[in-house]
Write a structure and sequence with these properties.
By secondary structure, the protein is mainly beta. Helices cover about 5% and strands about 40% of the residues. The strands form three sheets. It has a four-stranded antiparallel beta sheet, with no helix packed on it.
Length: about 150
């Protein structure tokens, strides 16, 4: 099964999301380009944004191909509330572990009482025993992670 590849970008200068679309809505990302030198450029309907003007301005977050219990798309950087059949729950962050030599999306910050034999995110969706819900993201809702890390 193929997974839809798409991104969203957090703009730390404007404190807002740009979400990819080809429908041409104002303020949405129309095109994301990465130059051979690794510089990010995004073209929207209203402006051309070049990261070289503001280094580290944008954080790209990739779609995992998964949706939460409400049908909301799950991106890296999202904060999930994971609830088991018995009602116990925890909060964790979706992370891409490729930089750590583990090329997969998984959850970071899982409390010790909860353990998984393999990739937690994959296990949750394959076994269907636990439910997850996007309750925020690491840029706008850091308070949800207080005491979790």
């Amino acid at each position: 099964m193929k997974r839809e590849i798409k991104f969203r970008a957090w703009d730390s200068l404007k404190n807002r999301w740009y979400e990819p679309t080809f429908e041409g809505y104002r303020g949405k990302i129309e095109e994301i380009m990465l130059s051979p030198r690794g510089r990010l450029t995004m073209r929207t309907m209203t402006e051309s944004i070049d990261e070289s003007m503001f280094p580290n301005r944008f954080e790209l977050m990739q779609y995992t191909g998964l949706k939460d219990k409400n049908g909301r798309e799950i991106y890296e950087g999202d904060i999930l509330k994971v609830t088991s059949e018995d009602g116990e729950s925890y909060v964790a962050v979706v992370k891409w572990f490729g930089d750590d030599g583990y090329p997969a999306f998984d959850l970071a910050g899982i409390p010790t009482p909860f353990s998984y034999d393999a990739n937690a995110l994959a296990t949750i969706f394959q076994e269907g025993v636990e439910m997850c819900e996007v309750i925020g993201n690491i840029f706008e809702d850091k308070q949800l992670l207080e005491g979790k890390q």
